[in-house]
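Protocol step 6 of 9: fold each sequence in the batch and record its structure tokens directly after the sequence line. For illustration, a two-sequence batch is reproduced in full.

Sequence one:
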Amino acid sequence: MTSPALTGADAAASALPASALPASTLFASENADGAAAARRAASRRAEPASAGLGFPTNTGAGEGADAAAPARTSTAELRQALPLVTVRDLSVAYDATTVLDGVDLDLFPGEMVALLGASGSGKSTLMRSLTGFAPISAGSVRVAGHDVTNLARGELRTLRSDVGQVFQQFNLIPRLSVMTNVLAGGLHGAGAINLVGGFSSAHRRRALELLDRVGIAHKANAPARSLSGGQQQRVAIARALMQQPKVILADEPVASLDPKLADSVLELLREIATEDGIPVLVSLHVLPLALAHSDRIIGLRHGRKLIAGATSQLDAAALSPLYDDEEHDDDAHH
């Protein structure tokens, strides 16, 4: 396999278009790409300079030593360089069937990462592994400070409260109001008041603010079943934010929406990643959506990671190997 380092022949290859590069060259720098994407996201919401990136300034003669000193890295920048999710050599098996085999993954603050692959490639299993819903047979998984492979008693509920989830089928309670569905996202932190079915005024204010943020505050009192699919998915996103999550997992969140609504929902998720610094992992089946709405792309095939790289370096041709089996299946039926 070609070395991932861009030296010798690889240096020449770096000038080629993305679709012409071998996978080993094109996708080797996942961690660097993720950290870079996180730093770019941080810069978009950066503090004023006076709040301190900490770069020394030369104010006059005699301060050469200070001017030559290396620039200090701010605490915010250091945080952006550290992944909130770290998966190493992950394997998941159900009985004798291996679903994931040696998968690595990092998710950094402020980035949106698209997870691609054909049906049965292991996308949903990888997401379930991050919240303790899949049987991890080998490797390590750390999510928002939790060691998922060695959770202490009672820690599983805390882990799941730290991870907001958005699903394809919305998972709302149709007969309840939009407001109540959003408030349900805060049950973990509502304390004793939720035992009698109530929420504090502070929780209600926050829920209304979140509904306003996703653009449907005017529907707060409407039953969830009266909303369109796109509106229901926005309610689901507001509910996930109500948890104050450290990570968001979105499993095929736009599969049941038309293209225009799909774009608007993915734009909202990416805005949340950038503005709130919450990494978003979103599984998708449509390549143009992944290329338009993500900072990085991870591609699975037969439970193994086949592709990992910055979205800016990828195109449909480079991603097509992920779906070769689907094309062969289609050919077999013709």
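Sequence two, same batch, same settings:
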Amino acid sequence: MSQKNIPCGVCLDIGGTNIRGTWVNTKGDHGELFTLKRPKLLPHIKESLIYLINKIYLSCPNRPEVIGIASAGPLDHKKKTYLKTANMTELDFFPIGKFLEDKFSLPVFLENDAQASALGEAMFGPFKEKQDSITLTLGTGLGTGVIINKKIWRASHVTGPELGHIYLGGNLRCGCGQIGCAETLLNKNALLKLSKEYGVNLKDPKELYEIAIKDIDPVKEILREYGTRLGLFISQLQVIFGIKNICISGGMSPLARLCDDFIKNTIKTNLVKRKWWQPEEIVYSREPNLSALYGMMAKYMEHAYLTRI
């Protein structure tokens, strides 16, 4: 079937650092991935969104049916608006859905980026054949998405559970207001701080990845400590959910892959007396820059199916 006959949408991922987007269709095909630095003022963010959507719109093989926005939050996916955010205060209470619907006369779907990533990995990624999975997104923050029976599990939260704000240790105050959240030990800044403690001064975690593959002693210890932290966090999630399929995505997922042995050994040690809690599979996203965009198309597909029955 020609791509011109397959329904597609404009899908964006708004992160703490960048805004990226492309078109995605219901078969999982996609176009060129465009990326912009995210401005820090709301008027400039609006301009960037309009510019990027127009650019993607023109590249679509046919007229898009939807605009899907995956974003760090917290946000209200039903009202299509941001709530009081932890790391992007310029977006506090911004009704992004109404803004874009008024501009483009297309339906807009809004979803937490980590939950969109989890849905994307479940529908188009390594867990296509699995009903239940958990995806972690490592980057500016620590996002989590829980998929049960191929649907985003939200508990009783309008935002969905933000498991990165479970207590993991330490005395750092998180952007959410709590002390010792997992995010404060696993996000980008935490990794940079950890590296500095071992005498490795970095501006970006990507630099650590580049030197990590050289197997330098201080870097091994950084990976060991970070992998142990991540293993402890996954162990806590397993106590709660016991879901067997774990995916690690986000901009820092290639670095997390280098910690794989430390992650798995920590989980195995922690859960040695509860082996049935141990995950069967920990995988790393093949396309971490696209998983949330796939998730937004999956969300539209679910909506289209439900409106037909």
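Proceed to step 7 once all outputs are recorded. Observation for sequence two: The two ends are 25 Å apart (CA to CA).
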